[in-house]
Here is the input.
Amino acid sequence: MLVNKMDEILDHIEGTAIRIHMYKVKKPNDEIIKQAEILFQAIQKIKSVVHGLRNMKNSQMILDGCVEIHTLENAGDVILRAIITDLFIKEKDAIELLKWKEIFERLEEAIDVCETVSNIMGTIVLKHA
Here is the structure.
């Protein structure tokens, strides 16, 4: 299950990249860069936590990492709400609005799955520590 969820993160990243290409996005805006940075940080933390699973003596480090991933996911939610609100206020072209909304939501789904992965790892630690 853990591997499937990690694969799902990659699927969402790939889906985002494909949409950026299909929709002919020439330059990423600041908001998508913020979202991508949160996703990158969450993935880096997942990597650290996965390595920590090799030794259950690292249980506190693993659980702390899971909390950090949860915090990043919450930050991603806040940014997405601000992005979508701003998009509906500023974007007058309905097609552009739909393109960007889908891109942002797909990226946020990747961040959400990072939290799911974190929850699975936290559960593993709690069961075996």
